[in-house]
Amino acid sequence: MIESSDVNVKYYPFDFQSCNTSFTALGYDLIEVNRMRMTYSIDLTLYHGNSMWTLESTYVSVENIATGDEKQEVFYTFNLRRKPGYAFVTVLCPILFLGALNAFVFLLIPESGERIDYSITTLLSIAV
């Protein structure tokens, strides 16, 4: 089994990823593999999506390997699209919220001595 996926985050969070997986039955001949009913599509009945990615499409291809024995290699391709709302909720919203909280430092009374503590706490929240 070989899996490859070149991650391209140039258009993050609106990116599109293509992941390839290949399987080879090295212990079986071509005749034995063809006896099994092989569909050229991926069964997605048990697939459950998640909050970060959408499965756009799938593709299956089969190639014969030119070795001494007749072998087949099956290639599965999964095309995924990132949901931009997830990045907005987990990255952008907290930064905007903490930035707005940082503006409230000017509402504190200067004589209380809490301005610096409040500013440093807010800055640490943004940094972490």
TrEMBL record:
It is found in: Membrane. Gene3D superfamilies: Neurotransmitter-gated ion-channel ligand-binding domain, Neurotransmitter-gated ion-channel transmembrane domain. One of its GO terms (cellular component) is membrane. It comes from the Eukaryota. GO terms for molecular function: extracellular ligand-gated monoatomic ion channel activity; transmembrane signaling receptor activity. The keyword Transmembrane applies. This is Neurotransmitter-gated ion-channel ligand-binding domain-containing protein. It comes from Dreissena polymorpha.
